[in-house]
Every structure is written in structure tokens, then in C-alpha cells.
Design brief:
This protein is α/β, with parallel strands linked by helices. It folds into 3 domains: about 20-65, Orthogonal Bundle (434 Repressor (Amino-terminal Domain)); about 75-180 and about 310-335, Rossmann fold (3-Layer(aba) Sandwich); about 180-305, Response regulator (Rossmann fold), CATH 3.40.50. It has helices at about 20-25, 30-35, 45-55, 65, 85-100, 120-135, 180-190, 210-225, 240-250, 260-275, 310-325; strands at about 75-80, 105-110, 140-145, 160-165, 175, 200, 230-235, 255-260, 285, 305, 330-335, 335-340. The protein has a 6-stranded parallel beta sheet with strand order 2-1-3-4-5-11, with helices on both faces. The chain has a 4-stranded parallel beta sheet with strand order 7-6-8-9, with helices on both faces. Strands 10-12 form a two-stranded antiparallel ribbon. α8 links the parallel β6 and β7 (about 230-235). α5 crosses α11 (about 310-325) and α9 (about 240-250) packs across α10 (about 260-275).
């Protein structure tokens, strides 16, 4: 019997997807689907890029993929992960105001646990699945922790997604208030008053805003040829966390304090007062957020204004634009603004 030879099979070439077309064309997979179904507006420039990508990839939509949902629900999902503090609450208020003004509805899931907490990611995944069951037109992710973005690893390819975060690893729309600038302005304010030993009471570790504020603090000190002190705090954004840091801090080591937010500053002020030290007589302190109560602290607190309400309204407008036109907008970074008050002054003579 003679040996028979088998003709080797050619490797099967993976069929291109709408996500592949979108990546090559520089648009979302949602925009590609709209191009094929004709369910809403796609700009002339985007159409040309999609057509070129389709030709390059020899893409052919299957009939099932063309049977996509044509009608919008006018509902946007909001996934808020992290402590429900002043910033998060004001952000959600801005989102809600923008939705009411445009006759959209919000489906909000708020997870207070940190992603590193046991069971937190499973809880967040269930909440995300529930949001998607509402057939939302897009999803806003408000989080300070990049680990949370793993939940959206594939969703953004078929659904408009916007992250509200100091940094993002996803190829999606994003918006934030400039925490690096906040840290820089706060530290620079103390330096300009004459402080050379400046302590930073930080927020929770692993969070983008914490990292960016530390980076701003260090950049301002480096620019002035000053050395940073060991950062204290880190247990939370709360007054309780600031109080604990105030009890642990060495009063002889610093004359100025940059607190990660106003709540931390409030707790630090109280702790130092119990130890016999008062601002600005014995030291100066500045916070971040400029929450409405900051002007009524004792003393009135210098702070860095962060416009979380506008961040909410502009983030909503960005994702609505994406939903209704298929076009993405550039990342939006709102500026931080210095608001000096009576808690900061030139350093005491010791």
C-alpha cells in the first residue's frame, strides 16, 4: 500500500469584528454598528474612515449582528465605586441635574466598598449586570481606583462608556478635576507664605486622586528645592482619618500642612487643638474640595476648589453626545482653584 499524503490546511483567518473596524477607523464599535444599521447620525468624516477600514479588513457584517437595537431608552447607567463623600455626592447631583434638563433617566449603582475589599468586585459585577439589564444607552463609571476599570474591559467596545477618574487605562471617554494641580496649588500657597517644612496628610492609598495630589505636592516642593516630609494619614477621606493623623504627627516637624481634603483637615485641626496647637498661630493648614462648610470651620479653612457639580454635568453631556452622534470627545480636565482663608498665614517664629 502506498503512503498517502494529506494536503495541509491553511490556517483559518479570524473574521474581523465591528470592534476591529472601529479601532482601525478611530471610532467606537457602536458608531460602526450605526453606520451599518443607519439608526442615527454618523458624521461624513467618520463614515469615510469606517469605509476605508471596512475595505482594508474585508469586513462583512453578519445578518444577526445587523439586527441591533434601534431605539434608545434615554437611560444612562451610572456605576459609582468608592466612599460616598462630598465629592462623589456633588458629582452625582451634577449628573442628575444634567439628566433632568435633557429628559434622560439615570440608573445609579453605588458601591461604597473599595475594589480590594473581599467580595467587592463580585458585588460591583452584579451591579453592572443589573445596569445592563435596563438596556442603558451608555454607562458612566465614577471611581478613583483603576482596578474597577477591569469590569469594563469589553463593554466599551459595544456601548458608550465614560470614566470619571483622575487617570484611566481604558480607551474610552473620560473627565476629571485636576487633582495634580490641586496638590501643586495647595503646596505652592504654603511655600509662598514662607513655609519650608510642609506635611502632607494623604487620602487612601491606591486611589488616583490620592496619587495625583501627592504628585502635585512633591512637584511644588521640588520646584522650590524643598524636601517632602513623610506622608501621614491614608486611612480614609474622613475627619476621623484626619483626627488620627493629627494625633500621630510630630508638631515640631512641620509649620504647614496640606490635607488631602477638607474633611481630613477638619479632623487634623481638632486633634491638634486637643494637643494645644491652633491654626494659624502655631501652624497653617489647607485642604481640597472647598466644600461649603469649609468657610465655617474654626478657623475658616483655606482650600482648593474642585467643581464636582460641573464635572457631573459635563460628563453627562459628553456621554450623551457620544450616544446621539457616535462621536467621542477629548478628555475633559477641569481646573482646580485656590481659595485662601484664615487657616493659612506665614510660619510662626520658633
Amino acid at each position: 500500500m502506498s503512503a498517502t499524503s494529506k494536503t495541509p490546511r491553511r490556517p483559518v483567518r479570524a473574521r474581523a469584528s465591528m470592534a476591529d473596524v472601529g479601532r482601525l477607523a478611530g471610532v467606537s464599535a457602536q458608531t460602526v454598528s450605526r453606520y451599518f444599521t443607519g439608526t442615527s447620525y454618523v458624521s461624513a468624516d467618520a463614515r469615510e474612515r469606517i469605509e476605508a477600514a471596512v475595505a482594508a479588513l474585508n469586513f462583512r457584517p453578519n445578518l444577526v449582528a445587523r439586527n441591533l437595537r434601534a431605539n434608545h431608552t434615554r437611560t444612562i447607567g451610572v456605576m459609582a465605586i468608592g466612599e460616598l463623600n462630598y465629592g462623589m455626592a456633588t458629582l452625582l447631583a451634577g449628573l442628575s441635574a444634567a439628566a433632568r434638563a435633557t429628559d434622560y433617566s439615570l440608573a445609579i449603582a453605588q458601591i461604597e466598598a473599595a475594589p480590594s475589599d473581599p467580595g467587592a468586585m463580585a458585588e460591583a459585577q452584579r451591579a453592572l449586570d443589573n445596569l445592563q439589564s435596563f438596556q442603558v444607552d451608555g454607562i458612566l463609571l465614577a471611581t478613583s481606583d483603576q482596578d474597577s476599570e477591569a469590569l469594563f474591559e469589553r463593554i466599551w467596545e459595544t456601548l458608550p462608556v465614560l470614566t470619571i477618574s483622575g487617570r484611566t487605562q481604558l480607551s474610552v471617554d473620560s473627565a476629571t478635576v485636576d487633582s495634580h494641580q490641586a496638590g501643586y496649588l495647595a503646596t505652592r500657597h504654603l511655600i509662598e507664605l514662607g513655609h519650608t517644612r510642609i506635611l502632607h496628610v494623604g487620602g487612601p492609598p491606591r486611589l488616583n486622586e490620592t496619587y495625583e495630589r501627592v504628585r502635585g505636592y512633591e512637584d511644588a516642593l521640588r520646584e522650590a528645592d524643598l524636601a517632602p516630609l513623610d506622608i501621614v494619614g491614608g486611612s480614609g477621606w474622613s475627619a476621623e482619618a484626619g483626627f488620627a493623623a493629627g494625633l500621630a504627627a510630630d508638631p515640631d516637624a512641620f509649620t504647614g500642612v496640606f490635607a488631602g481634603n477638607d474633611q481630613i483637615a477638619l479632623g487634623f485641626l481638632r486633634a491638634m487643638r486637643t494637643r494645644g496647637y491652633a491654626a494659624p498661630l502655631d501652624y497653617s493648614i489647607i485642604g481640597v474640595d472647598d466644600m461649603p462648610d469649609a468657610a465655617f470651620f474654626e478657623p475658616p479653612l483655606s482650600s482648593i476648589y474642585m467643581d464636582f457639580h460641573t464635572l457631573g454635568t459635563e460628563s453627562f453631556d459628553m456621554i450623551r453626545h457620544h450616544i446621539e452622534t457616535g462621536e467621542r470627545l477629548e478628555r475633559r480636565v477641569l481646573p482646580a482653584v485656590l481659595v485662601p482663608r484664615e487657616s493659612t498665614a506665614p510660619p510662626p517664629t520658633r
